[in-house]
């Protein structure tokens, strides 16, 4: 089979890169056969080694760059750069933003067949580093020493690192301090292969607006040796800590958190604000990881919803009610739907915390609950969706088309499924008016998009 392909495994060849894949690899073509090469940029000429070939594409490794892209930046050496999961860090931030914006435009045309839609310039960050408010760091042992950091790609080997370039400094400090304390106290690390030992992960969460820090110690065993000393030292070395939590995960699994959580010291939750809305964040709560850009995204959601105080809003896929509570400030009534019961508990608690009385939350699948509401005669003026990567279920899109809310605001973390769903909504009577990409995850290939649709024939 491979005889008919223009390249063979282990070939060294000179190529010119034309494009980037959605996961940030450079694309070069040899007689039409695409080869994907991580860390290569469009416009670059380079020598590569072909390391894998499949029928329809190959994978290569960069050997030498002859001509650099003007978007290429030198990446410092060190494990934080090498293993930190920043797939686009070799590209200037300006280049990253342009890549993401172009990707959105291309996919909207290719998959959504949306030719003349208005795509605004992407909203990026002033400082695209140290933005994440949550870390979950695996712990292991090497040469008898406790280590914690990143996994090597496609392996379970841990690289000991004290810094992540995209975490908020308080998070890095917290993880490092807890690692040092556990090491000093001789708390054994978990050994994945043998399923023995104690400490599996160190987790830290930080409320950027409040300065409140949560530390979560995740162990295999129900007990933590030297627990009291551990707590005392964490309090002494991390003055911002407001909550120390113990989570037990006794299973052989890649899932980080187990079911049993107890508070070792302080509060069960920390607080944070997005705009004026206050959120309680527990060890297990879902909460957006880039708080600054979340505000940017939700301000857009508010703008696109165009609320006057008279509207009924449905927020499908509402999570802990973040968008719902944001919109409730300007709407008559908001109904949130979410499949995870604990998230709905958080949503209700957050509504109460803010004295918001015009938001109601229901547990269930959006594609089941919303058609049911419609059948019962309930309608929304504005419908917001913020689905996971696979996009909206077709039954939900059909319910939207039947219900005919005047506006639909679609928040998406996957331009491909977004484009597929926009096509269905367009064919069902909606017009895509505005598309706003937002960079929620600088240095990575992820891009968030928010879209405003209106019923065709509606004056805007
Ligand atoms: N809007 C929220 C959460 C978005 S993440 C925020 O901005 O914080 C997507 C959410 O959809 C997750 O909370 C996930 O649990 C939920 N979800 C996944 N499938 C669902 C479905 N079929 N119906 C309702 N919610 C679903």
TrEMBL record:
It comes from Bacillus methanolicus (strain MGA3 / ATCC 53907). The gene is rlmCD. The lineage of its organism: Bacteria, Bacillati, Bacillota, Bacilli, Bacillales. Signal peptide: none annotated. Belongs to the class I-like SAM-binding methyltransferase superfamily. RNA M5U methyltransferase family. Residues 6-64 form the TRAM domain. It is an enzyme of class 2 (transferase). The active site is at 413, 413 (nucleophile). It holds the Pfam family TRAM. One of its GO terms (biological process) is rRNA base methylation. Its EC number is 2.1.1.189. One of its GO terms (molecular function) is rRNA (uridine-C5-)-methyltransferase activity. NCBIfam families: rumA. InterPro entries: MeTrfase_TrmA_AS, MeTrfase_TrmA_CS, NA-bd_OB-fold, SAM-dependent_MTases_sf, TRAM_dom, U5_MeTrfase_fam. Keywords: 4Fe-4S, Iron, Iron-sulfur, Metal-binding, Methyltransferase, S-adenosyl-L-methionine, Transferase. S-adenosyl-L-methionine binds at residues 288, 317, 338, 386. This is 23S rRNA (Uracil-C(5))-methyltransferase RlmCD.
